[in-house]
């Protein structure tokens, strides 16, 4: 028994399913997860010493790759001064200023420790601000694991075919209205019927939790105009897309000003940090200024803030997103070429440093289309690529991520592996 398999067996004794977050368990693709020991740049090594080209990047945060020297240096310096104070620090003021500069829709921001906290808090704030209860979300979008949001959520929940979750009281989700992604008619109908009861729409402005699904321009515009017309708030959940698809996230690409934005992943540079922010009049409702309660012992943690600041500083380098976008597009194109050469039904697309690969003829535009892709083919591809030393997310419903450390050689090695794998498994 290898040490990886031995570790998994041991992990299962005291950790449910052997993992601390469900999609890590390889439940969708089968087999045993790799226990990772080390990462550097675009690569990770498992406990058996095998190296992989990593396209998971800790599920999005690692836009600078693993163990980036500037982030390590910032984290180490901050840690030497103390790990946590539970009191304000200068660094968190600097990060708040920077976030509001970089995201024009944000006039004020509050730091939290996870994307789940950010979305959960933004929704409470939207309800407190509007005095309304109803929330609109979209099928296949994941916004963290708060009760009201575990309704037809994506990724891990799609993977496990569990559209909701046990343990969520019916009442907690009763005010969550779920619509199909990219369906403008459904949105118009809902707002015509109950627009005056809707506190907020929460949306992944480029969905990354049902694989990568892009919104149509008409959908994006309808979200903004309908919410505005009915006095509901528009919450862009940019936990995944923020500082990932472009310097101003999806809202920069769409030319949209949401009322509230949730950030996570990249903003913490691999440390537990997230944020929500937006219009000053809305944020003014938050405690201690206003009646909407929200708090956190480790919110704005100085070590996490240091990692975030260092990351935001690096990605501000001129041409950063152009280069990252070129590399990610080249990855998507190269994988399509490898599949085409073998006659495999396959498609791929990239936005900034995020990509989707699909065993379907075209990139999907809705949850329904995502579910029609060939999942068995993905699973075979995933395992064969893993053997070849290429680490994609262990689920057909996840987006992938490229870092600025992925080199032309990494891409070439990925294509060589893909050519071999497409032929080998004769999909
Ligand atoms: N929102 C989106 C769009 C996400 O992708 C995620 C996590 O993947 C979350 C919220 C929840 O973030 P966290 O896992 O940090 O709680």
What is the gist of this entry?
By secondary structure, this protein is an alpha/beta fold. It is built from 15 helices and 14 strands. It has helices at residues 3-14, 69-80, 90-102, 115-130, 156-159, 170-173, 184-194, 217-229, 249-254, 280-283, 302-315, 320-342, 367-371, 375-387, 408-425, and strands at residues 36-40, 43-46, 51-54, 108-112, 134-138, 176-179, 198-203, 233-238, 260-263, 274-278, 347-351, 354-358, 390-391, 400-401.
- End-to-end separation in angstroms reads 31 Å
Helical region count?
A: 15
Q: Determine the CATH superfamily of the largest domain.
A: Type I PLP-dependent aspartate aminotransferase-like (Major domain)
The parts where pLDDT drops under 50 for at least 5 residues are none
Bin the helical content.
Answer: 25-40%
Count the domains.
2
Per CATH, the class of the largest domain reads: Alpha Beta
Order of helices and strands: HEEEHHEHEHHEHEHEHEEHHHEEHHEEH
Q: What integer value in Å does the Rg equal?
A: 21 Å
Task: Look at the helices and sheets and give the structural class.
Answer: alpha/beta
Strand content: 5-15%
User: What is the arithmetic mean of pLDDT?
Assistant: 95
DSSP, total strands: 14
Judging from the principal axes of the Cα atoms, what is the shape? globular
């Amino acid at each position: 028994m290898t040490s990886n398999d031995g570790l998994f067996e041991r992990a299962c004794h005291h950790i449910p399913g052997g993992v601390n977050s469900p999609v890590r368990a390889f439940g969708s693709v089968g087999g045993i997860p790799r226990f990772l020991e080390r990462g550097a740049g675009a690569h990770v090594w498992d406990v058996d010493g095998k190296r992989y080209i990593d396209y998971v990047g800790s599920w999005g945060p690692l836009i600078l790759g693993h163990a980036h020297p500037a982030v390590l240096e910032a984290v180490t310096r901050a840690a030497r001064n103390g790990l946590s104070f539970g009191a304000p620090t200068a660094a968190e003021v600097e990060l708040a200023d920077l976030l509001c500069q970089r995201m024009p829709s944000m006039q004020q921001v509050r730091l939290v420790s996870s994307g789940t906290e950010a979305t959960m808090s933004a929704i409470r704030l939207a309800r407190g601000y509007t005095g309304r209860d109803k929330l609109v979300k979209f099928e296949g979008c994941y916004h963290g694991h708060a009760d009201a949001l575990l309704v037809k959520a994506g990724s891990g929940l799609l993977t496990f075919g569990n559209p909701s979750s046990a343990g969520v009281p019916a009442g907690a989700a009763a005010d969550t209205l779920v619509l199909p992604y990219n369906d403008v008619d459904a949105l118009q109908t809902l707002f015509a019927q109950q627009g005056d009861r809707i506190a907020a729409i929460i949306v992944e402005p480029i969905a990354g939790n049902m694989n990568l699904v892009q919104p149509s321009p008409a959908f994006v515009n309808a979200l903004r105009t309908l919410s505005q017309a009915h006095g509901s708030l528009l919450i862009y959940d940019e936990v995944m897309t923020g500082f990932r698809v472009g310097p101003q996230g999806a809202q920069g690409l769409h030319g949209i000003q949401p009322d509230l934005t949730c950030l996570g992943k990249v903003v913490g540079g691999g440390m537990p940090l997230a944020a929500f922010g937006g219009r000053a009049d809305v944020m003014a409702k938050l405690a201690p200024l206003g009646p909407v309660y929200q708090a956190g012992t480790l919110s704005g943690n100085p070590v996490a803030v240091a990692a975030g600041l260092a990351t935001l500083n690096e990605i501000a380098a001129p041409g950063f997103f152009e280069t990252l976008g070129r590399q990610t597009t080249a990855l998507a194109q190269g994988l399509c070429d490898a599949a085409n050469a073998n006659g495999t039904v396959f498609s791929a697309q990239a936005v900034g440093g995020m990509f989707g690969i699909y065993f379907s003829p075209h990139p999907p535009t809705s949850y329904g289309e995502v579910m029609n892709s060939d999942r068995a083919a993905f699973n075979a591809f995933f395992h064969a690529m893993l053997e070849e030393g290429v680490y994609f997310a262990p689920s057909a419903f996840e987006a992938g991520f490229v870092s600025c450390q992925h080199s032309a050689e990494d891409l070439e090695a990925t294509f060589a592996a893909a050519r071999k794998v497409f032929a080998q498994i004769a999909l």
